[in-house]
Amino acid sequence: MAENSESSLSSARPNYIYAILSMALALFLLGFFGLLSLQSRNLIKGFREGINILVELKDGASTDEIAALQRKLNETSFVKPGSVQFTSRDEAARIMSEEMGEEVLKLDLPNPFFDILQFNVRSEYIETDSLAGIRRTLLQQPQIQDVYYQENFFKQVAVNIGKLNWIVAVVTILTVLATGFLIHNTIRLSLFANRFMIKNMELVGATWEFISRPYILRAIRHGLLGACIAIAGLMGLISWISSKAPELDPAATMGGMIWLFAGLALLGAAISGFSTFLVVKKYLKMRVDDLY
């Protein structure tokens, strides 16, 4: 008899392990999309800052003038630090002959190239208006003949990045909603076994606040535990991806990852606690006959 009573009590207990693991999985998926968003921004920034701007120098520019201009560019706010490179007209001709073969040298044509300074622009300046302003500023220098960049290519890059940002935002919102839905349903199922206990406490005179408090506090602890499991899984995933793809440097997005992990912990605790409050309140509002 005692064994039957004990087994019935244990079977009536909610499966909190299942609830915690389900929350951990939902938060892991949300964190995964968050990491994708962080890395996509990092990759986009690297791509934008890898596009070259070519500055064609006049024939009369001396070595000292070119060196001074190079130093000035390195100190300019719109230039990516360390990206300024000088290519002489002779070096440009040599590169062309290597690519096109020795037949070009046999033609004995005059060197058509100019001395060139090449640099990359900071990501925040990769906009059509900003680039046009940079070009006007550079053309004011007496040593500069012209400035070249692929205007249509930059416009297309800006359009594609805008579309990608919208896609990432929509996917993130949908993932947050799906995470909240999954956690809420998991908690609802886990508390289903306690519905009679919740109602009985009300019938003997306990207030709703007194009844709800232990369930909500336990739900918050479970939400934090699920978030810790999800964060541990994400850190393992980051470590594995870094070993397979070194170009995806986690250190470059360390600040964003810290905020992401803190957000997962806060979200797990908040959704779990609020969902538990709603479920307990629902059972308290129901009649006893409706609980069956």
3D structure, described in words:
It is built from 10 helices and 4 strands. It folds into 2 domains: about 15-45 and about 155-290, no CATH class; about 50-150, Alpha-Beta Plaits (2-Layer Sandwich), CATH 3.30.70. The relative contact order is 0.15. Strands 2-3-1-4 form a 4-stranded antiparallel β-sheet. With about 290 residues, it is of the alpha+beta class. The two termini are about 25 Å apart.
Helix % is 55-70%
Structure summary, number of beta strands: 4
Radius of gyration: 32 Å
Largest sheet data = 4 strands, antiparallel
Low-confidence stretches: 1-13
> What number of structural domains do the residues give?
2
Summarize the structure.
The chain has 292 residues and is α+β, with helices and mostly antiparallel strands. It has 10 helices and 4 strands.
Q: Could you give the topology of this structure?
A:
Blueprint: H1 2-12, H2 16-48, E1 52-57, H3 63-74, E2 85-87, H4 89-100, H5 103-106, E3 116-120, H6 128-139, E4 144-148, H7 151-191, H8 195-203, H9 208-244, H10 254-285
Antiparallel strand pairs: 1-3, 1-4, 2-3
Helix pairs in contact: 2-7, 2-9, 2-10, 7-10, 9-10
Which short descriptors sum up this protein?
single chain, 292 residues, alpha+beta, Alpha-Beta Plaits, 2 domains, 4-stranded antiparallel beta sheet, 4 strands, 70% helix, rod-shaped, disordered N terminus
